[in-house]
Amino acid sequence: MESQTQQSRYVRTVSSVAALGGLLFGYDTGVMSGALLYITPEFHMTPTQEGRVTAMLLVGAAIGALLGGRIAEMLGRRLSLIVAAGVFILGSLWCALSSSVFMLASARTFLGVAVGAVSIVAPMYIAEMVPARVRGRLVSLNTLMIVVGQLVAYLVNSVLASSGNWHLMLGMAAIPGAMLGIGMVLLPDTPYWYARHNRVDRAHEVANRAGMHLSEFLDAKEEQGPSRRKEWRALQQRWLLITVMIAIGVGITQQISGVNAVIYFAPTMMSQVGISTTNSVYTAILIGVVSVVACWIGLKIVDRVGRRRLLTIGLSGNVISLILVAIMFRHATESTAMAYLCLALMALFVAFQQSAVSLTTWLLMSEIVPVQVRSIGMGMAGLMLWIANWFVAQFFLPMVDALSATGAFGVFAVLGALSLVFVRIFVPETTGRSLEEVSEEFRRRWS
User: Fold this and answer.
1) What averages of pLDDT result for each successive group of 10 residues across the chain (447 residues)?
2) d(Cα 261, Cα 349) in Å, to the nearest integer?
3) CA triplet 396, 318, 157: central angle to 5 degrees?
4) Which helix (H) or strand (E) holds 60?
5) SS3 content of the chain, % helix, strand, coil (to 5)
6) With 0-12 CB in 10 A as exposed, 13-18 as middle and 19+ as buried, what is 337?
7) What is d(CA 224, CA 81) in angstroms, rounded to the nearest whole number?
8) What pTM did the predictor assign?
9) What is the separation, in whole angstroms, between the first and last Cα of the chain?
10) C-alpha count within 13 angstroms, C-beta hemisphere, residue 116
């Protein structure tokens, strides 16, 4: 038997390596916020084209999320992450070498497939590799690495701002891609996956190293082995279908808050209210720092406060912050001080989002999808999350043109309020409970 110290060290190592996928996810979604300021004049892009180049990553991500769960079931979580790392490397180099809007959009779509797959498989891998008592903190490490990746992107953008070298901004993602691939080569797959594929001895070995009980994974083998029903047929059971729909709703909740409108376009918005292009790139660093600090705080408290309660607090803070942003943006062009006040309010919104909403939604998605439909359920939830993300990226700037920034942020405030109602009605508390216990609650409630 492994000692408790060895088990703790092992699960931290496993989670840290898998969370490099979150770093890549964050870098590739955040880097365009600064790169667009230099790509747009070089390619003479319209606001619609800006949105398209940004959003094509999300088209690929939707495909990757839909397929990610199924591929992870066939190949294993570990090998899926290794393949995704290879796609990250190739996609990053393709972006860096792009010489037209079409080529860049195509490269971003290809890269997005890896982003979407990793967004599903990395939390799944961590959730299945760690004990329930630390699952919240360690799965949330993936979310922390997403915002760290975004901050790294902002810092790279700021360093390269004077040269405007957007090719290097986009190409740098190949480095953490290589780190993820090498790290995953050295790790095993999860006990869940081994048990489902009749490798009980290997499941026992990995579970023992992580401080978990083999009985959990024998249940997985019974439900997911070769004689199990196909997952699509399993969705005919009312409680399983409703549970997957709730997971989809949780994923959409994260995106319709409007967070990625700020992440992707904060520099663009700041440049529109009179702040210089170079300084607009630097303002994104504030958003990045706030994201990392807030997410770190959320990671520390999520297992104590509880997922559902923390999500409720975050959504409430989001709505209030967005209302303030909407009001103050009407006066942002009056003075530089007003513009920076708007930036501060956007940072407040990001603090609520990253400490509570984004952190808990990725965690809840990995916890509430039952083992009987885990690959399809996670894929569907991820697909709808990325579709919602695509709509935000594609239509935010045109919506600002049509409704003004005040109107656009007001729309997000209303959607945040509706999300809060959804969470209070449908989302259960999962803190400190095994994945089987969470599924059993859904079975009792919705059968």
Assistant:
1) 72 85 84 82 81 82 83 89 94 92 92 88 85 76 84 86 87 90 91 83 83 61 48 84 93 86 71 63 79 90 89 95 87 72 87 91 86 81 83 79 85 94 92 82 88
2) 12
3) 55
4) helix 47-75
5) 85, 0, 15
6) exposed
7) 21
8) 0.75
9) 39
10) 36
For residue 372, what are its two tokens?
Answer: 């009987």
Domain 4-187+229-446: give its CATH superfamily: MFS general substrate transporter like domains (1.20.1250.20)
DSSP code, position 332: T
Residues 8-18: b if buried by 16+ CB within 10 A, e if exposed: bebbeebbebb
Q: Which residue has the tokens 């001080």?
A: 337
CB 403 within 8 A of CB 292: no
Q: Residue 86 corresponds to which tokens in the numbers above?
A: 């290879």
d(CA 257, CA 208): 40
Residue type, 36: L
Q: How far apart are CA 206 and CA 327, in angstroms?
A: 54
Q: Which two tokens stand for residue 323?
A: 């209302």
Q: Which amino acid is at 106?
A: S
Closest CA to 378 of 147, 119, 26: 119
Q: What angle do CA 151, 45, 385 make, to 5 degrees?
A: 50
Could you give the CA distance from residue 36 to residue 410 in angstroms, rounded to a whole number?
A: 25
